[in-house]
Design brief:
single chain, 223 residues, alpha/beta, Rossmann fold, Arc Repressor Mutant, subunit A, 5-stranded parallel beta sheet, globular, Tscrpt_reg_LuxR_C, transcription regulation, Sig_transdc_resp-reg_C-effctor, DNA-binding
């Protein structure tokens, strides 16, 4: 089945460009468009897209709040949000990731990257450009705990190896890189990541990375 995509951006020309790129792919179908966050919420309820391509800065309701309502508790469907941003170091991206976005993409990214990002997010892989995600978290470290706060009780449910894996996820390593670092198979890493997400009640690797920073498990700037 085709991946159902909703385009959300306050610039009609950009939406048209994205639609032309995505509709050229046999496995992607653009099911609707919205010009602001409020329209996006209505369209998500009506159209049940798989992926919402979400601009951040829009009138009436911005992409951060729209993302929070689409992916938060009691959401109407399984839609995942891929955030679009003009700048690769945008403080609003951090807020969108915290709100539940599955990743982000620069608006001037090549067409093939946009298509691949849609497929990755739809498949639940979620973590896009992990090194850039980490740079965002590091840059806006003033909004994050210093690392001196008590460790949340939920972390105590993880095994030592699962804590290791979570730290490496937060550093932006892929499964293959984590496997090489820990001298285990990639399948084993996937199993550990799955256990971490389940035990902490997180949806994907992006949320796991943000959680690691916000809990103080990983300190901004640490290697």
């Amino acid at each position: 089945m085709a991946i159902r995509v909703l385009l959300v951006d306050d610039q009609p020309l950009l939406r048209t460009g994205f639609r032309m790129i995505l509709e050229a792919e046999q496995d992607i179908a653009v099911v609707g468009e919205a010009g602001d966050g409020l329209q996006a919420l209505d369209q998500v309820r009506a159209l049940q897209p798989d992926v919402v391509l979400m601009d951040i800065r829009m009138p009436r309701m911005d992409g951060v709040e729209a993302t929070r309502q689409i992916t938060g508790p009691g959401r109407d469907g399984p839609a995942k949000v891929l955030v679009l941003t003009t700048f690769d170091l945008d403080e609003y991206v951090v807020e969108a990731l915290r709100a539940g976005a599955s990743g982000f993409l620069l608006k001037d990214a090549p067409a093939h990257e946009l298509v691949q990002a849609i497929r990755v997010v739809a498949a639940g892989e979620a973590m896009l450009a992990p090194s850039i995600t980490r740079r965002l978290l590091d840059k806006y470290a003033t909004h994050l705990p210093s690392g001196d706060e008590p460790v949340p009780d939920a972390l105590n449910t993880l095994t030592d190896r699962e804590v290791e894996v979570l730290k490496l996820v937060a550093r932006g390593l892929s499964n293959a890189e984590i496997a090489a670092d820990l001298f285990v198979s990639e399948t084993t890493v996937k199993t550990h990541v799955g256990h971490v997400l389940t035990k902490l009640g997180l949806r994907d690797r992006v949320q796991a990375a943000v959680y690691a920073y916000e809990s103080g498990l990983v300190r901004p700037g640490a290697q």
